[in-house]
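Morning!

This is the sequence you dropped in the shared folder:
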Amino acid sequence: MIGRNGGAIKGEERWLTASEIGQWGYCHRAWWLAYIRGESPGDEDIFLQGLSEHASHARTVRKSQYARYAALLLLAIALLLLGLTLLLYLGGGSF
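The structure's back. Tokens below.
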């Protein structure tokens, strides 16, 4: 069992609810704040800040995925050009 300070509590057992598991799956930090630290999400400003930070992180992840796809596309084009160059050079250009 995990106590409020994150340490184990001997002899105390408690079942996790589906709601707790769902919250942990959505945001580990929110679960930790609610169920370990005992803080409630009552402050709307902090909640909105968290939403903003999650949205910002999602945009960053999306941009990095696009950059990865672009890099893979450029690599494929470079390999095709290299192959074509080698084919023309080694083949004597007799097309």
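Headline: The chain is about 70% helix and 0% strand.

More detail when I'm at my desk.
O.
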